Amino acid sequence: MKACVLFSSGKDSSLAAILLEPFFDVELVTINFGIVPTYEFARQSASRLGFPHNVIMLHPSLIGEAAAMLVEDGFPGRAINYLHQSALEAVCSKPDTAIVADGTRRDDRVPMLSPAQVRSLEDRHNVKYIRPLSGYGRSAVDVLVDAHLQVVQGESDTVQKADYEVELRSFIRKQYNEGDSMVERLFPRHTQSRVTDRKHL
Amino acid sequence: MKACVLFSSGKDSSLAAILLEPFFDVELVTINFGIVPTYEFARQSASRLGFPHNVIMLHPSLIGEAAAMLVEDGFPGRAINYLHQSALEAVCSKPDTAIVADGTRRDDRVPMLSPAQVRSLEDRHNVKYIRPLSGYGRSAVDVLVDAHLQVVQGESDTVQKADYEVELRSFIRKQYNEGDSMVERLFPRHTQSRVTDRKHL
Q1: Mutation test of the interface with chain B: which of A108, A125, A134, A199, choosing the one with the most B Cβ atoms within 10 A?
Q2: What is the ipTM score, two decimals?
Q3: A115: how many CB neighbours lie within 10 A of its CB?
Q4: CATH of the domain at A183
Q5: Counted domains in chain B
Q6: How far apart are CA B6 and CA B133, in angstroms?
Q7: Inter-chain touch A140–B128, beta carbons under 8 Å
């Protein structure tokens, strides 16, 4: 049975795919909003992981709406959730999709669907939504990442991956006056990771 | 790396073990409180699944305390949580235990640790607590059970397995006047499953 895994080229979505691999036919799916062609990074990582990879293009207006939420809120939680829900809706809407997964973890706050949103997604699309890392804390994830993945890590601006933040940052830089300083203010500094290879045991 | 999976011989804990098998050295652990030798069923199921199996005996007084909670509350939630926490504490206390898992699912209410209880368990024992089915809803679990397990199902009284309820029921029947009718009243009727074999693909 095929399982579509939302894939950013980061370690969490890569590990989610690896956890499902013994039990499902995994296909990686990267969402892109037409602002930055980040799917190229995802394609490279997917190839190194050894999974088939597809890209779904969504309308740039979704990034515009998310940017407006972000500017209004002053922090990215609602905007990232909005883009993640749009991504899940898009993957669930693909024909013949029965299982959809992502790399969200036990201790993640964002992106995260509420239990009611999960039920709604599953019922409307007749899909099973699986979060393989939902029962894994940070140190358990670290053990598996260390065993299975080669990763490059760094500040958000230096590691290129296919996550929502890269396109959001780019959009805000271009569309808003003082976009550069807004990006600095709106996104908390944090470390990003991109998978560069798989360790075959 | 070894992972100890709390094992009742039911389909959820069996599936949790199967999900971890490609990534860890799985060892099944069944808890028994000395009231009913339910670990014999667990030993049979573990053998058919092909995993090593151990039994940890805990003091019968824990069942007595849980029974008192159950009688006071009128429903089994707090009592089952108490026994599950006692079981996790026991497994985490075994020497050289680094990873402990159980078969609790996304939609389970009981047994369930709070996020604070999970952090406390992991920090005090220096273990990683993994819930492999935490990101799986009922229909996703059903797909995997159907693919991997032979299961016998029936009412709680007819399917013999190694869960807390079997020993709690037996204790209450023996220790309380009108124990039979109390058991009828205190435990909601529900279907139990015991794994009888593994489907090798």
Answers
A1: A134
A2: 0.95
A3: 10
A4: 3.40.50.620
A5: 1
A6: 13
A7: yes
